[in-house]
Amino acid sequence: MTATLTPPGSERGPRRWPLVGNLPAFARDPLAFFESLRDEYGDWVPWALGPQRNVLVSLPEHAGELLGAVESTFKPTELGWAFRQLLGNGVVVATGDDWRRKRALVQPSVRPRQVRAYAGTMVECADALVSGWSDGARIDVHREMAGLTQRIAVRTLFGSDAAGREAPISAAMATAQRELGAEFRGVTMFLPPWVQTPGRRRMRAAVDVLDREIEHVIREHEAASAAGQERDDLLSRLLSARDEDGGPLSRTELRDESITLYIGGHETTSTTLTWAWQLLSGAREARERLTEELDRVLGGRLPTYEDYARLPWTQQVVKEALRIYPPIWLISAVAGEGATLGGRPVPAGLSVWISPWSMHRDERWFPEPEAFRPERWSADATAAHQIPEHAWFPFGGGPRACLGARFALVEAALVLAVVAQRFHLDSGPTLARVLPGLTLQPRDPVLATLRAHRS
Questions:
Q1: Which domains are present in the chain?
Q2: Cα angle vertex 401, ends 398, 407, to 5°?
Q3: What are the two backbone dihedrals, phi and then psi, of residue 23, each rounded to the nearest 5 degrees?
Q4: Does 6 have pLDDT greater than 60?
């Protein structure tokens, strides 16, 4: 499909309030806000976040064009004080030559060959978790999945001997995520950095803990390296990485990339798994197909990296969970000189937004968009109903696509395979409410009864 954007000057958008623009509606429920913009005003909708002038674009081809043009005619949006505190100037935040250098240094550590090496850790941690479960027990699904992905992230990123540092890192990350989301949805995002609100003080304290813990782990790795000990974890790869001039990552850069990889390996996957279990709980046929595939392919043994390709239904469950609940729910970029979308000039300085949440729930691309239907991702289904490129983009796209996408997809599928062989997580048919923050978290506890599969 080729579409032409609304001619300049003819587009409509929601009413803007003085000074705050559309901030009240956005802060109240940003997910519903983006869907209402799409449904009520079309595929090119002007809106305002305080003094910032924005436009929401809702066609896949224009999303792809925008994602592909970041670092050329568009640049990433500056997302404010809280994001900078947490992510520093890591590869997600950096721009221009600095971003290109960091991407080249970080990317080799998460290539498919490296993900293969970490698959055993993913399976081992998941097996250890379910070995402590019992039939009929009640669990908090999100807490269990968060604890699991934290262990996997700490071990793959920092090594197995850093396992004792999970608790302080986890607590600090939870605080940082909560305060980041609160700042992003409120008026404090417009305050200058020197204004210290209670939320910003909590954020700063959490970041101090993260900095201290990561510094400790870096020193341990440096001592091990000096002693001639080889380690096969992500941090060791970052420590040994060199740019084209032979330069290593600085101490600050190591901290920033460690945080970035931790979030990518933990936050996004834990929420994806939580939503997947919730969706499966209310979908008996999908669960039965999952059990049948796991029994047929694995026969009761633990999965390996090689099994990932042999589990298409498991992969489809993950893709469908990512469609309905994309962890990264919005992406934005600022137009530079000469920027265009769909052949239309975009004024320099205008912030263009795309929302995986609203795009993934658009019935033009996904019939019955709120229905959990993993079968829509089968080869036969996609041949019958072609899903446009960039109608599904939970990991972004273009040159700034998430480096850890393969890691996250493999991790989610292998964890599903380990757990679903032994238990059904029965949380009932009612889905938890959504809390938009750094990722899409469940607002409510996700409580489930464990139902053991009988051999």
A1: 23-452 (1.10.630.10)
A2: 145
A3: -55, -40
A4: no
